[in-house]
Design brief:
By secondary structure, this protein is an alpha/beta fold. Helix 2 packs parallel to helix 3 and helix 15 crosses helix 17. It is globular, with a radius of gyration of 27 Å. The chain starts with 5 loop residues before the first strand and ends with a helix.
C-alpha cells in the first residue's frame, strides 16, 4: 500500500465527488475524482489505487459494466458501491463481482470513511467461483421490461426502447407505424402500431416516458426485424427520458438460468435468451443450480433435457422440493420416453424442439409477466339512470388544489373505459368530488362551453381540457399544451389541454386496449391530483 492511501471516486454528481474529496483528504488520503464515467474507468486502470468508490447510476455508462471491466483487469482492488437507487439485483451482482461494501445515498461522512478504512484493512483478491456468472453480467446491458416492451440505457444516457408482440400464431407483421421524432412518449401508451397479415392491428406500449430523438426506420422497410425480436436490431426508438427513476422502479430485468449437460455458452437456448434481453447464466451442475437459485434473483430455470436422460426428471424433483416458486421450463426432443415423468412434476412449460421464435417470445412473456390481474374496463353495476357521457369532473386534491376537468367528443364514458377507471380511482381516494354528465355530444368551441370554462377559471387553480384530435398519430398517443392564466385574485394558474389520438377519426368512440386505457387513466389522474 502507498504511504498515503490513494482513492478514486467515480460519480457523475459533482457535489458527491467534492464531498468525498473533502472527507478523505481531511483523513489523510490522496483522492482523485471523476464525473465522467469513461475517463474514470481509464483512471482506474492506469493508476495504483488502494480503493475505488463507484456510483452505479452514471449518466454516460452503466456503473455495473465499469465494475466488470475493473474486475477483469484489476481483480484485487477493493471497490465500494454508492447508489441512490438500491435494488436487490444490483446488490446481488455487486456481491458476485467481489464488491466489498454497498452504501446507499445519502450517506454520512463517517459511514463512507469507516467503510473504506475497513475494506482497505482486509483486502482480499477477487477470484470468481464461476466464470459464467461474471461473463453473464458483462455480456449485455441491462434490459428493463414493462408490459411487452423494454429499454436499456446507452452510454450517452439516452434509452434505446423496443418491444414485441405476443400471440402472433401464424400471422406475420405486414407493416409498422412508428412515432414522430421530437415527440413526447409516455410510459404505457403506444410506442408503435403494428398491422398483421390478417388485417388486425396491435400496439406495442412504451416502457419509458420522454422525448423521442431517433426512430428505427429499418422497421418500416423490413418489419420482419421486429418479428424476429432480436433486441440489438429490433429497437423502435431512442428516447431522452424525463422520468428515469420511475421507469427503473417499474421496469424489471429478466434473469434466467440454463441447466445443460454441456455447460457451454454456445448452447442454443442460452444464446436465444441473451438475444432476447435476458440476464442469462448456464451451468451443468445441479449443485450450482441450487446455489444460484438460493440467491433469490433468478426465478426461471430452463432445463435443456435433450441429453440429460433420466437425470432430468430427478433434477426437476429436487428443484421442486428446494425452490417450489421457481418456474421450470423443459426443452426436449419429440417422443422421448421420459416426457411423462417431466409432466408429472411441477413444471411451467414443456417445449418440444424445434422451438419456434414466436413460441419462445410468448413463453418468456408468460414466465416473467406473473399472474397479472386483468383490469375490468366496464362497470359491472351499470347505472342506467345517468347519461353515459361524463362532461366535467371537479375535485379538491390533497394539496388543496382545486381542479376541473372538461371532457369533449365523448372521450369519457360513465360505465366503461377511461371514464369508468378515472372516476372509480378518484372516488376511492375520497377527494371532494363533483361529476357532471351529459346526454349530448359537446365541443370545446360551443359558446356555452366557452362561458363555462371562463367561469371555472375564476374558481379553480387548474383547468384540464381533455378531447380527441386526429393528427394521424398512433391511436392512444397524446399531446399536451400548457398555458398560464390569471383569475380575479391575480394568482397564476394552469390551463392544460390534453389531446388523445382516436382510433378512427374524431367521430368514433375512444376505446383502446387495457394497457393503453390504464396508462391514459394514470396520466390524466396525475394531472388532477398533483400539486
Amino acid at each position: 500500500m502507498n504511504p498515503e492511501p490513494y482513492l478514486l471516486v467515480i460519480d457523475d454528481e459533482n457535489h458527491i465527488c467534492e464531498s468525498c474529496d473533502r472527507i478523505f483528504s481531511n483523513a489523510g488520503y490522496k483522492v482523485d475524482t471523476n464525473i465522467n464515467a469513461t475517463n474514470g474507468f481509464r483512471q482506474a486502470l492506469m493508476n495504483a489505487y488502494d480503493a475505488i468508490i463507484l456510483d452505479l447510476n452514471l449518466v454516460e455508462s452503466d456503473g455495473m459494466q465499469i465494475l466488470c471491466g475493473i474486475r477483469k483487469r484489476k481483480p484485487d482492488v477493493p471497490v465500494v458501491i454508492i447508489t441512490g437507487y438500491p435494488s436487490e439485483e444490483s446488490r446481488r451482482q455487486s456481491t458476485t463481482l467481489g464488491v466489498t461494501d454497498y452504501i446507499t445515498k445519502p450517506f454520512e461522512p463517517s459511514e463512507i470513511l469507516e467503510s473504506v478504512q475497513k475494506v482497505m484493512s482486509t483486502k482480499i483478491k477477487f477470484v470468481p467461483e464461476d466464470k459464467t456468472v461474471v461473463e453473464e453480467v458483462m455480456a449485455e446491458p441491462a434490459y428493463h421490461y414493462h408490459l411487452s416492451s423494454w429499454f436499456y440505457k446507452q452510454p450517452n444516457g439516452l434509452l434505446r426502447v423496443g418491444g414485441y408482440l405476443t400471440n402472433l400464431s401464424d400471422n406475420s407483421i405486414e407493416s409498422v407505424k412508428l412515432p414522430d421524432t421530437g415527440g413526447l412518449i409516455y410510459r404505457g401508451l403506444p410506442l408503435a402500431e403494428v398491422t398483421l397479415s390478417n388485417g388486425t392491428k396491435q400496439n406495442i406500449p412504451s416502457s419509458v416516458s420522454g422525448t423521442i430523438t431517433l426512430v428505427n426506420n429499418q422497421l418500416r422497410e423490413h418489419p420482419i426485424i421486429l418479428e424476429r425480436n432480436l433486441h440489438k436490431k429490433s429497437w423502435i426508438a431512442v428516447v431522452e427520458p424525463n422520468r428515469l427513476e420511475e421507469d427503473l422502479g417499474i421496469g424489471n430485468t429478466r434473469s434466467i438460468l440454463v441447466l445443460s449437460d454441456t455447460d457451454n455458452e454456445e448452447n442454443e437456448f442460452f444464446k436465444q435468451f441473451v438475444h432476447k434481453g435476458c440476464i442469462t447464466k448456464i451451468t451443468g451442475k445441479i449443485d450450482k443450480v441450487s446455489e444460484i437459485l438460493a440467491e433469490g434473483s433468478t426465478q426461471v430455470l430452463a432445463l435443456d433435457a435433450r441429453n440429460l436422460a433420466v437425470k432430468g426428471p430427478e433434477y426437476v424433483q429436487r428443484i421442486n422440493l428446494e425452490f417450489p416458486d421457481v418456474k421450470i421450463i423443459v426443452f426436449n426432443e419429440p417422443n422421448v420416453k421420459n416426457e411423462k415423468q417431466y409432466r408429472e412434476n411441477n413444471i411451467f412449460y414443456y417445449g418440444v424442439n424445434p422451438i419456434a421464435n414466436n413460441e419462445m417470445v410468448d413463453l418468456l412473456h408468460c414466465a416473467f409477466s406473473g399472474d397479472k390481474k386483468k383490469t375490468i374496463l366496464k362497470n359491472p353495476h351499470v347505472n342506467r339512470f345517468l347519461p353515459d357521457t361524463i362532461s366535467k369532473i371537479s375535485i379538491t386534491n390533497r394539496f388543496g388544489t382545486k381542479v376541473t376537468l372538461f371532457a369533449y367528443n365523448d372521450v369519457l364514458k360513465n360505465n366503461s373505459g377511461l371514464g369508468y377507471l378515472l372516476t372509480k380511482d378518484l372516488l376511492d381516494m375520497a377527494f371532494p368530488l363533483e361529476i357532471s354528465h351529459s346526454r349530448y355530444r359537446k365541443s370545446v368551441d360551443d359558446a356555452t362551453e366557452i362561458q363555462d370554462i371562463t367561469k371555472e377559471k375564476e374558481k379553480n387553480d387548474r383547468i384540464i381540457i381533455l378531447q380527441t384530435r386526429d393528427t394521424d398519430r398512433i391511436p392512444g398517443s397524446i399531446s399536451k399544451e400548457i398555458q398560464e392564466y390569471k383569475n380575479r385574485n391575480t394568482s397564476v394558474n394552469l390551463l392544460i389541454n390534453i389531446f388523445i389520438q382516436p382510433a378512427s377519426g374524431e367521430d368514433k368512440e375512444v376505446e383502446f386496449d387495457e394497457n393503453t386505457t390504464i396508462a391514459l387513466r394514470d396520466i390524466v389522474k396525475s394531472e388532477m391530483i398533483s400539486k
